[in-house]
Queue: 2 jobs
Job 1
Amino acid sequence: MNRHYNVITVGESTIDAFMTLAHANTSIQLDEKNKLLSFRHGEKIDVDRYDFTIGGNATNVAVGLTRLGLKATLCSETGDDEFSIKIRNCLASERIERLLVNQTHGASNFSVIINFKGDRTIFVQDAQREHDFKLEDVTADFIYLTSLGRDWVHPYEMVLDFVTKNKATKLAFNPGSRQLHEGKEIVRKILKKSHMVFVNKEEAEMILTDKETENDERKYVEGLMAKIQKLGPRIVVLTNGKKGSHVLDDTGKFYWHGINEGRVVERTGAGDAYTSGFLAASLYGMSVPKAMKWGVHNATSVVGQIGAQAGLLRKEEMESLMGK
C-alpha cells in the first residue's frame, strides 16, 4: 500500500559543527573591506561555544514542514558511522519517517561552520555517495528537490521520472550550485516540470545566460524572474538577502516582502526556513502575501539561533506571530 505525504524532500543530510568565535583579537582578525577572516597559524584559539546539529537543505526543509503541521519525509543518504546515528535520532525526534533514508558504508556528510559576528564560513566534506534513491510505494502532494553532492544526476532523473508518472504530484525545485555549474541541460528539464522554483538572486543569474544590465534593482530582479518563469515553473520565489524576497505568481503578478528586523546570531538555514514557511502556507491554501509572511517569520526565527533548525517555528508559534 502506498504511503502518502504532503511533501517528500530529496537531498542531503549532514552533520553541522558550529564554532562560534566571540570577538576579534590578536589571533583572529576580520578584514571587513575584503571579507577576509584570518587567524594565526599554529595558535590555540578560544571558541565561545560549540554546537553540533544536523543539516542539509532537504533535511532542514523536511523538519521545517513537519514542525508546521504537515506530513513530510526525507529521501536522503547517510554513512554508517557514529554520526549517522545522530542524524537518524534527530529525524526520529522530529517525527520524520526514515523509510526513504538509505544507509551506506562510509562517512556521513560533515560541515564545520565558523560563526563570527553573525555571518558564517562553511567548510564542507563532500562524501562520495551513490545516491541510489528509490521513490517506491509513496505518493505526495509535492516533491521538493534540492542540492546534492557528487553523482547527483541519477536522483535528479529519478525525481523527473516520478513527477512525470505521478501527475498529481507537484514539483518544487531549489537547484544547488553544483547542479547549476555542471548540469544546465537537466536543470532546464526539471524547471520545465516545476510548479515552484526557489532561488536566490545569484542562483537566478546562473540559470540564465542572457542577462541584461538594469540600474533599478527591483526591475532587474523581476526581469530575472520573468525569464525563469518562461522556462516552465508556474511560481518563482526569489530571495535577495537583506533586500527581501520576491514572488512571481502564475497570473504574472509580482509581490515583494521585506525582512523582519531582529537579532541575528547566525544565518545558516535562512533560505531553507523561508522555503518551508512559504511551501507550508501554500499547501494550506493561503495567498502569496501570507505565504511570504510565513517564510519571513520562519527565516527571522532561524537566524536568531545557531544552526539551521533550532529556530524553525511550530505551527502554533507561526499562527501566533501571524495574529499580531
Job 2
Amino acid sequence: MEFNKIDLDYRNYTTLKLAGNLLHANEILTFCTKNGSAPYLALRDFVEEWLHPSPYMSIMTSGSTGKPKVMEVAKNHMLWSASQSAKYFNFQKEQSALLSLPLTYIAGKMMVVRAFYSQLNLYIQEPKTQALQDLPLDITIDFAPFTPMQLDIIPKNVQLPRKVLLGGGPVSKELEDKLQDFQEEIYHGYGMAETLSHIALRRVNGPKRSEIYQAFSSVKLRLDTRNCLCIQLPFQKEEITTNDIVQMKGPHSFIWLGRIDNVINTGGIKVFPEDIENKITVLISCRFFISSKEDAILGEKVILILEKNGFTLAEWKILKTQLQSVLSKYEVPKEVYTANEFIETHSGKIQREATLKISQKAI
C-alpha cells in the first residue's frame, strides 16, 4: 500500500466508539471529562490534540537507549501505520479492542488511532500489570496490545483477546513456550516511536509460530555495514538507521539477533546478551540481564546481573553448573553482580548501563 495523503487525512477521522458509545469530535472530550478517571482524562488530552487543526502532534520516545525525547509526527503518518495494522489483522468495523497501555508513548497513542481508522469499539482502562482482571465477564475483546510482562502473569484459565499484539520489549523463550497453551493468535511486533509502532510482525504461538518478522510490503529494508537494520518508510525521504542487528531472510523479512549497543566481544567471539538471556530464563527466578566488564585477557567478559539482595557462593556454583549445560563456553558469565532494584525507563524497560553502575559484585 502506497502512502496517500488524501485517503489518510486526519480531519476525516474524528468519530470514536468508547465502550459502546458512538461519539464525534467534542463529544469524545465531554464523555472523557465526565468519566473523570485517569485513563479517560489521558484519552481526552490525546483526542484534544488529535482534533487540533495542526497536522502534527507530539510523541515521546521510550528512552531505552538514551534519554527520552519529544518528536513531532504527522497525524496522517500515524493513520498510515493504523491502516497497515488494519490490513494485517483484518480489523472489522465495531470489533472490540482494549487499551491497557499508557497514552504517554506511541503504543498507547496508536491504539486510539487504530480505533479512529478502523471504527473499533474501544475499551480503555488503567495501565497495569493485571491487564484483564477488571473487564466485565460478558465482554469479549477481539484485539489488544500488551507488554510481555502483562501477558506473562495472566493465568491459563483467563480468556485472552482473540488477537494479541506484544511490544515494548523482547519475548523470552520461557514466555513464548507458555503462550503455546493459548488458542488465541499472539503476535510480536517490531517497531519504535520513530516508525510509529510496528512495521514488522511475527506469530508467537500456534502452528504458524515463527522467529522471522515479516515487514509491511510498503516498507523497504536493508542492512548497513554493521549488519544493523535500516528502514525506509513510504512517507519519509530519509531512512531510519537502527542499532538492531538482524539476519535478513528476504526483502521484507528478518530475524532479530540483538542490539549492537549490547554486543559483547569476548576473546574475539561476538555474543549477544539477548540470545544468552533467552537461553537461561528458565534457570533464574528473579529479573536479570547479561552485560560485560573489561577484561585484560578477553577484552570483555560476560557477566550476569541479578535483581536480588545478595547472592552466595553456593548459589553461584549451582547456577553456574546449570548455565554451562545450556551455554557455550564464551557465553557463560564469568562473574555475577546484584542490584536490589533495577533502574527502569518510564515505559518499564530496564536501563542496563544505569543499573550496572549501581550493581555490586556478589562473590
